[in-house]
Structures are given as structure tokens and as C-alpha cells.
Design a protein that fits this description.
Layout: E1 2-9, H1 17-26, E2 30-38, H2 49-62, E3 66-69, H3 75-85, E4 89-90, H4 92-103, H5 107-133, H6 145-182, E5 186-192, H7 198-206, E6 223-229, E7 232-238, H8 248-253, H9 255-263, E8 266-272, H10 277-293, E9 301-306, H11 313-330, E10 336-339, H12 348-358, E11 364-371, H13 377-387, E12 389-394, E13 399-406, H14 410-414, E14 419-421
Helix pairs in contact: 1-4, 3-5, 4-5, 5-6
């Protein structure tokens, strides 16, 4: 597919042209031209009428298949522009959804993408019906009034059905999550801007080889793998990448996946440290906005500066200081900052930071474990080492073990015939 891209920069905020071009390429488009304009949003066409005429001339010259706007379009703007240009017109979010459709593999991911598409189409169909009633023969995708009305009913019915199916997936995931907590796993979620290297980090932590491409939105399917932090059992989950101004309809559609972040014990917010500071700052703040939307900012968050192998030590140090200053200025609470190279599997700083955070979690409490049967002591110590941290062991007729353990593991220990007390 051949496309002409259109970017409208606001006087006080520029659209990232490189990112828009990368989105186009990720969706499989051949970029014929990029038209740019700086002005306030035109209520009818988004861009100015003069610039619209310029696009019209380019269409005659280059014969594209589509015009793609880097800015979100209102349903009214979408119809007005299509009517003027007489060519298929989509905006940034429809472009993102096209990429999602290409990347979705699991049943859950496909349902989430379909729900997001239907939520995107809903206001367009309503606008088409409004225009038909006003005498404008602008149906939706060539449909007449009756067909458009029927399609609106179908959208609402299908959205309801998908939400019910996703609720079942959510319930199944909740059962698995509780079971994981009961057997002593720390739940860690990867979050961050698309293409920051989250999948590569999952591979490095879990010693896996899951496909990780340098493309936008490679991961749509939730992936969970085991790893250990100094012998402690943990699970790492990769989630869909963020992007600037992620709209509510995409957040809602992918809520069951993004909920892995909400339910996690620790969130790793991954940034690409090899990028210029202005990009790191932009993507960090965009990610914080999504975490805020998810109500996940109260969790322990570790900022992970990935790809340190692609930048100098001095530059990395400067960026780390800049992140610290930005965090302080914005009043954001984070539990630490770690510099790593997921590709080179250099994760020392991250392991240290994770271990420091782990025992501050509410699920860990200090207990005194009493073991009366001497032959059970080695097994009890081995179990505690896998789920907590032993502070002291006093051997005797009754062995007394002082340790931080996960509350969810109390049952497992009592089944071994030991007694647990809160130290006075």
C-alpha cells in the first residue's frame, strides 16, 4: 500500500515525524510523501483548507492508496476530508490498530484488537447516520442508511459479546495469578514505550529466546516466564507497549492485558537509554501517563535504562541524573533506577535493585519459624530460601528460624508441621 502522510504540528507542540514514519513502515506502507503544517487545529479539516488543496494536488501526482494523518481526526473531520479528497483517509489510531491486527496471534489479543476497532468505528458510524438524516449521502463504507443502522446494531452486539469473553479470560488469569502467589512467586511486569527492548529484557531475565524485533508493537500477546532473584522465585510478564497520548478506547480494549501491570508486585519501566534525552523524556512522561491511567503509580516502580551498550558511560551518567531530576521535579515516586543491556545480558544493577525492593513488599513479613523435628530442618530452610530471606537460625531441640517470608506461603510451611510466630 502506498500512502501520503499528513502531520499538523501545534504551535506549542510538534508531532514526532520519525515516529510517525516508523508507524507507517511497521504497518507495511510505502511512504510517497509527508506533508507538514504548523497551525491550530482547523475544526472542519484538521489542517488548513490551503494545505488540503496541496494534498489534493499530490494525490493527482503520486496516486496513493491512502492518506494517513499523524493527528487523531474527529468523525466529522474524517468525513469532510474524505469527501474533499475522494480517497480513503485514516488517522494515527486507525494506523496503530492496523499494526495491532498484524501482530495479534492469541485469541485474547485478536479479541482485544477487534474490540478496539469497533470502539474506533462506533463514532464514525454514528456520524454517518447523522449526516444521512441531514441529507448528506455519506454512508459508512458505501452503505446506505438502513445498512449503516444495522451495522451500528451489530457493533454494539459484538462489543458486548467480546467484553464477556474477555471477562472470562480475566477470571481465568486471576485464578492463575492467585495460585502463583500462593506458591511464592514475586510478580514482575514489564512496562514502557513501544520498542524500548522489553521483550529482549524478558529473554535475558528468563533465559528465553522469544522473538524480539526492532519494530513498533511487536508484543501484543501477554507473555509470562519464570526467573530467579538470588534464588527467589519470580515471574516476569511482558505487556503491550505504550505510545504518546494512548487513547482511552485502546486502554479499555487491552485492559485485561494491561491489568498484569496493575496486579504486579513490581513494575519495570523500560526506557531506551541510547536515544537523545528529549526522546527519553517524552517517552518516560508518556509511560507515566499510562501508568497513571491504570492507577499503577502507587506500586514499586524501577526505571530501567536499557541499551547501555549503545551509549558512553559519561552520556549514560548524564541521562541518569536528568531522569532523577525529572522524577523529583514532577513529584513521581520510583524505587530505583538501573542501567542495563538486555541484549548483552548485563543485568547486575537490575538484580541489585530488584532484591532491595523485594523485601519492602507488603506480602513479606518477619516471622519466627519453629521446627521441632530435626530431620525436617533442611527441607524447611530450602523452602524459606526460595520464598524469602533467612535472617538467623538457632539450632536446638526446637530449631528457631528468623526470616522474611511471603504471607501466602504460610500454609505451605504449616503443612510441613512447623509453627510460625510473629516476633515480639
Amino acid at each position: 500500500m502506498r500512502a501520503i502522510g499528513v502531520i499538523r504540528h501545534s504551535p506549542n507542540r510538534r508531532v514526532n515525524k520519525e515516529e510517525f514514519e516508523e508507524l507507517l513502515r511497521s504497518a507495511g506502507y510505502e511512504i510517497l510523501a509527508i506533508v507538514e503544517q504548523t497551525r491550530e487545529e482547523h475544526p472542519k479539516y484538521n489542517i488548513g483548507p490551503g494545505k488540503l488543496q496541496e494534498v489534493k494536488e499530490l494525490i493527482k501526482e503520486l496516486n496513493p492508496d491512502r492518506i494517513i494523518f499523524a493527528n487523531p481526526l474527529t468523525p466529522s473531520q474524517s468525513f469532510n476530508i474524505t469527501k474533499e479528497l475522494k480517497i480513503d483517509v485514516i488517522d494515527k489510531w486507525q494506523l496503530v490498530l492496523e499494526i495491532f491486527e498484524k501482530r495479534a496471534h492469541s485469541k485474547e489479543a485478536k479479541l482485544q484488537v477487534e474490540l478496539a476497532n469497533l470502539q474506533y468505528e462506533l463514532p464514525l458510524v454514528k456520524e454517518a447516520i447523522r449526516r444521512i438524516k441531514l441529507g448528506d449521502r455519506a454512508g459508512f463504507k458505501g452503505m446506505g442508511e438502513y445498512q449503516t443502522q444495522q451495522y451500528l446494531k451489530h457493533i454494539r452486539y459484538r462489543m458486548g459479546k467480546i467484553r464477556k469473553e474477555l471477562e472470562k479470560v480475566k477470571a481465568d488469569r486471576e485464578v492463575k495469578r492467585k495460585r502463583r502467589e500462593e506458591v511464592g512467586f514475586i510478580l514482575v511486569a514489564l512496562a514502557g514505550y513501544t520498542n524500548a527492548g522489553k521483550s529482549t529484557l524478558l529473554n535475558a531475565l528468563a533465559d528465553e529466546n522469544i522473538e524480539a524485533k526492532t519494530q513498533m508493537f511487536t508484543t501484543l500477546d501477554t507473555t509470562t516466564r519464570r526467573f530467579t532473584i538470588n534464588g527467589k522465585r519470580a515471574l516476569i510478564t511482558d505487556t503491550v507497549g505504550f505510545i504518546d497520548d494512548l487513547p482511552p478506547f485502546i486502554v479499555e480494549a487491552f485492559h485485561s492485558t494491561l491489568e498484569e501491570i496493575v496486579r504486579a508486585d513490581i513494575v519495570l519501566l523500560v526506557l531506551d537509554s541510547s536515544e537523545p534525552w528529549r526522546e527519553i523524556k517524552r517517552k518516560f512522561l508518556a509511560s507515566i501517563e499510562v501508568l497513571k491511567e491504570l492507577k499503577a503509580l502507587d506500586k514499586p516502580i524501577l526505571v530501567v535504562l536499557n541499551k547501555k551498550d549503545l551509549t558512553s558511560e559519561e552520556e549514560l551518567s548524564d541521562k541518569k541524573k536528568a531522569i532523577e531530576e525529572l522524577i523529583s521535579r514532577k513529584g513521581i515516586t520510583v524505587s530505583g533506577i538501573a542501567s542495563i543491556s538486555a541484549k548483552e545480558r548485563d543485568l547486575k544493577e537490575l538484580y541489585t535493585a530488584l532484591e532491595e525492593v523485594m523485601f519492602t513488599l507488603p506480602k513479606y513479613r518477619l516471622f519466627e519459624i519453629l521446627v521441632k523435628e530435626r530431620e525436617k530442618v533442611p527441607k524447611v530452610i530450602a523452602l524459606i530460601n526460595s520464598i524469602g530471606e533467612i535472617l538467623d537460625v538457632k539450632y536446638g531441640e526446637t530449631t528457631r528460624i528468623s526470616a522474611y517470608i511471603q504471607v501466602g506461603m504460610i500454609k505451605s510451611l504449616t503443612k510441613m508441621g512447623v509453627e510460625l510466630k510473629h516476633p515480639s
